[in-house]
């Protein structure tokens, strides 16, 4: 009888019936930044994805900040009004941002808007 329990204790985690050691998969949200500070970021979600959360927690050392596909400078955050992509997951009841990515405006577009 003990042998059967030992076999089940070994086989069940490998069979996929249980979620032992399975990482939480991140979700994706796109939108425009409405407010940002050192600990949180709030988005205005795109219309087709309004079911996504709007406020996310930024955890220092765990949230990757990427600007133009590269690591953002220390303390750099996306500006208000910037289109942003966020990968997030729910941890302890909070929506935690795993990665925040945005693209800076191209110089050509900036010159066209000024002139």
Helix count from the secondary structure assignment: 2
Neighbour order of strands in the largest sheet: 3-2-1-6-7-4-5
Low-confidence parts: 108-112
What share of the residues lie within helices?
10-25%
What is the 3D form? elongated
C-alpha-based Rg, rounded: 20 Å
User: Could you give the distance between the termini?
Assistant: 82 Å
**How can the largest sheet be summarized?**
7 strands, mixed
| Average predicted local confidence, pLDDT | 77
Which percent range describes the beta-strand content? 35-45%
Order of helices and strands: HEEEEEEEH
Count every beta strand, where a strand is a DSSP E run of 2 or more residues: 7
Q: Which structural class is indicated by helix and strand composition?
A: alpha+beta
């Amino acid at each position: 009888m003990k042998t059967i329990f030992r076999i089940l204790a070994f086989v069940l985690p490998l069979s996929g019936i249980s979620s032992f050691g399975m990482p939480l998969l991140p979700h994706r949200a796109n939108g425009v930044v409405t407010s940002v500070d050192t600990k949180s970021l709030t988005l205005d979600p795109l219309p087709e994805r309004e079911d996504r959360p709007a406020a996310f927690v930024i955890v220092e050392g765990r949230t990757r900040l990427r600007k133009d596909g590269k690591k953002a400078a220390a303390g750099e955050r996306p500006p208000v009004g910037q289109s942003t992509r966020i990968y997030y997951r729910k941890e302890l009841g909070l929506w935690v941002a795993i990665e925040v990515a945005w693209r800076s405006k191209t110089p050509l577009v900036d010159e066209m808007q000024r002139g």
